[in-house]
Amino acid sequence: MRQGTMFLAVQHEYCGPMDKSAGSGPKSEEKREKMKRTLLKDWKARLSYFLQNSSTPGKPKTSKKSKQQTFIKPSPEEAQLWSEAFDELLASKYGLAAFRAFLKSEFCEENIEFWLACEDFKKTKSPQKLSSKARKIYTDFIEKEAPKEINIDFQTKTLIAQNIQEATSGCFTTAQKRVYSLMENNAYPRFLESEFYQDLCRKPQITTEPHAT
Q: What is the spatial distance between Cα 177 and Cα 86, in angstroms, rounded to a whole number?
């Protein structure tokens, strides 16, 4: 929590309006560049944690070796595809991990965790597992004062409470759609504007050394 708070403090200072008293001289420019490097360093540390420790809900974690093979840093062209549609971002394992790191920095990671839990839930075939997973999702994300309570209306919560009594794959469809829309319209645009995402899209500069004469 403390790390996240520090991150937000840095983010607010960098993204907020520039202090007029700071001026626009070399020292001011150097300060802004230093702030940018600090922000990117924090992002990369946070993303590295998610790549090494995240796993799909309901599935066992894989070994570190297989994770390193699974999560490959995208090229600038691949990263740019994420801006075309929210689904493009979610379909990329690296993009999903980056988006989770972003949501964690904004203290709303429960939204993507709920969405992922619902995706796993819909693939469940066993009635017994479907019932147990439905109860877990409800206690983790839906009920009042749940540890990862998502922001949905009372009527939807009541409907879910009724549906999980005889769980089906569509128990959480309405809530999942609302959370998806919330992320697509709010967090997703902010992610695309983040310095971390812009850095992924930036093509490396090719420098050529002068030939000796």
A: 13
Is residue 147 within 8 Å of 93, Cβ to Cβ? Answer: no
Cα separations (Å) of 151 from 99, 110, 142, 193? 19, 10, 9, 24
CA angle (77, 13, 76) in 5-degree steps: 5
Strands (E), the chain: none
Single-letter amino acid, residue 168: T
The SS3 call for residue 74 is coil
Closest Cα partner for 155 from 142, 140, 168?
A: 142
| 172 vs 179: CA distance, rounded Å | 11
Q: Please give the backbone phi and psi of residue 87, each rounded to the nearest 5 degrees, phi first.
A: -65, -30
Domain boundaries, the chain: 76-201
| pTM of model > 0.90 | no
pLDDT (tens digit, 9 = 90+) per residue, 148-185?
Answer: 999 999 999 999 999 999 999 999 999 999 999 999 99
Q: Which CATH architecture has domain 76-201?
A: Orthogonal Bundle (1.10)
